[in-house]
Design a protein that fits this description.
heterodimer; A: alpha/beta; Amidase signature (AS) enzymes; globular; B: mainly alpha; Histone, subunit A; two-stranded antiparallel ribbon; 3 helices; 4% strand
Chain lengths: 491, 96
């Protein structure tokens, strides 16, 4: 095996199945590549080489004894807001810089039980608040396709690690686009499942009514495999749903013939990058030629999604992040006298700028006299956005749109303008507000070689259909296996 | 609409954030800009719309009230910034 690291997860597991490579060899190959490449990309916050090799040996033993799972021995990366027992979990924040969880997140537990190998924890925007990975306490991640560009966020480390072959696949989380937008900008596949499909137990909470864990992978088949492994009801998360996990694999290759694809006119707005628009339109033409029916639709409340989100998400965050008080775990400012000064100083020094901005925004929206005007109003707008989707899905099978309005932008380009940054998620936020599944699949490159993603959204628990439609595009554009040349490394 | 400096200070104190003066000024401008954007929600007629706090229809979920020893206490304590005699140690609570 010459190039183990470039294989998709299912190719790697198949190679292990045939005895061509062991998990030990694959894990060692990834660790070696991380050591060589990641000083430039900065996709990992913590690499657990020793633990990974131990887990790899264990997986090889399990395989030798006849055990089989779809991820047995596959080296994965985990976004650093999923609790991993014994491996520090920082949320890319100073306030959790040295936090070592005494338990595993349920999604992580399911992967470990199936024999996956955890290579390490990936970089992200602090507490998942950001669209560029620049708010990390551990420095920005670089986009493997152009290291002067951002990888997207907040799961920028997971996206870059998958794109740069620094893992076979990764987990991310998506509150307003944090899986799909970086997947689009890094040229990989990223799925946000239906809210409640994957247990959030052990996912450090940002906005509890919006957060969802999902796979970030080299192809759709890998996304289907991982979704199958991590999904399911969990008594530890009372919002996880007790409906049977779908069969995401068997219908994957069935194509789009007869499928009605809705295209919302509100997602083709002025100011959208011309290359993005033409690549998305081209994808729709391809699908039409494969027998899909393209139907232009309207989601009339789309323009209210971003403003509603920037009330609801910060409101939930201001409450969720109240727990960081320097008492039981995390950073504490030791320099001051008295409990209340300790709280305020710990929080001011422990949180970065964007996190503080959102706590302030959420606190303001929930404060006396403003609750009805902001929070209640936003919840009503949310109901209207959901209604748009429910009505649309009575007429169409899936909805397609761009994932992001532009390809990756430059490092530093938007970091001083919060509102501009917030608008990077203009096409992804609605799916979180409604709670429906959405996927980003690579559909081409801009003139300067930046990857662009096509977004497919589906109705509640329609992951199988969403992945089948996305797979049709993946098969036609044939970009699986097209890799970035990481210029600063080569030579 | 521009937030006043007093409003920024008040919200920061509610959120237990001791902001630096320069941050107060910065956030004052940025938050005002974001709030102006959020105020576009005011255009919507929501008089007949029920607020939606959750994506799916959820109901209360109950479980047996049974004690479980889920976590190793030593691991929790290892994360504490300050501890003594098996307890979390905090600065003096009653001041003055």
């Amino acid at each position: 095996m010459t190039d183990i690291v470039s294989l998709t997860l299912h190719e790697l597991v198949a190679a292990m199945e045939k005895g061509r490579v062991s998990s030990r060899e694959a894990t060692a190959a990834y660790l070696e590549r991380i050591e060589k490449v990641d000083p430039v990309i900065n996709s990992y916050v913590t690499v657990d080489g020793e633990g990974a090799m131990k887990a790899a040996d264990e997986a090889d033993k399990r395989r030798a004894s006849g055990q089989r799972t779809p991820v047995l021995g596959a080296p994965l990366a985990i976004k650093d807001l999923l609790a991993t027992k014994g491996i520090r979990t920082t949320c890319a924040s100073k306030i959790l810089e040295n936090f070592v969880p005494p338990y595993n997140a349920s999604a992580v537990e399911k992967l470990l039980a199936a024999g996956a190998v955890i290579l390490g924890k990936t970089n992200m925007d602090e507490f998942a608040m950001g669209s560029s990975n620049e708010t990390s306490h551990f420095g920005p991640v670089k986009n493997p396709w152009d290291i002067t560009k951002i990888p997207g966020g907040s799961s920028g480390g997971s996206a870059a690690a998958v794109a740069a072959d620094l893992c076979s696949a990764a987990l991310g989380s998506d509150t307003g686009g944090s899986i799909r937008q970086p997947a689009s900008l890094c040229g990989i596949v990223g799925l946000k499942p239906t809210y409640g499909r994957v247990s959030r137990f052990g996912l450090v909470a940002f906005a509890s009514s919006l957060d969802q864990i999902g796979p970030m992978t080299k192809d759709i088949r890998d996304a289907a495999i991982l979704t199958g492994v991590i999904s399911g009801h969990d008594p530890k998360d009372s919002t996880s749903v007790d409906t049977a996990v779908g069969d995401y694999l068997s219908g994957l290759e069935e194509g789009v013939e007869g499928m009605v694809i809705g295209v919302p006119k509100e997602y083709f707005v002025e100011g959208m990058d011309a290359d993005v628009e033409s690549l998305v339109r081209q994808s729709l033409k391809i699908l039409e030629s494969k027998g899909a029916k393209i139907k232009w639709i309207s989601l009339p409340h789309t323009k209210y999604a971003v403003p509603a989100y920037y009330v609801i998400a910060p409101a939930e965050a201001s409450s969720n992040l109240a727990r960081y008080d320097g008492v039981k775990y995390g950073y504490r400012d030791q320099a001051v006298q008295g409990l209340s000064a300790m709280y305020s100083n710990t929080r001011n020094k422990g949180f970065g700028s964007e996190v503080k901005r959102r706590i302030m925004l959420g606190t303001y929206a929930l404060s006396a006299g403003y609750y009805d005007a902001y929070y209640l109003k936003a919840l009503k707008a949310r109901a209207l956005i959901k209604r748009d989707f429910v009505e649309a899905f009575s007429e169409v099978s899936v909805i397609m749109a761009p994932t992001a309005p532009s390809p990756a932008f430059g490092l530093g380009e938007k970091i001083d303008d919060p509102l501009k940054m917030y608008l990077s998620d203009i096409f992804t936020i609605s799916a979180n507000l409604a709670g429906i599944p959405g996927i980003s699949v690579p559909c081409g490159f801009t003139g300067v070689g930046a990857p662009v993603g096509l977004q497919v959204m589906g109705s509640y628990f329609g992951e199988a259909l969403v992945m089948r439609a996305a797979r049709a595009i993946e098969r036609e554009v044939g970009l699986v296996g097209v890799k970035p040349e990481i210029r600063a490394i080569v030579g | 609409m521009k937030l006043s400096l007093e409003e920024v200070k008040h919200v920061a104190s509610l959120a237990r954030l001791k902001l630096e003066p320069a941050e107060e000024e910065l956030f004052r401008g940025q938050l005002s800009q974001v709030l102006d954007f959020i105020n576009t929600l005011g255009e919507l007629d929501t008089s007949s719309v029920e607020p939606m706090s959750h994506a799916l229809d959820v109901k209360n979920v109950f479980r047996e009230d049974r004690q479980e020893d889920r976590f190793d206490k030593q691991l929790w304590k290892a994360n504490a910034p300050s501890q003594d005699y098996g307890h979390f140690r905090v600065p003096k609570i009653i001041e003055g």
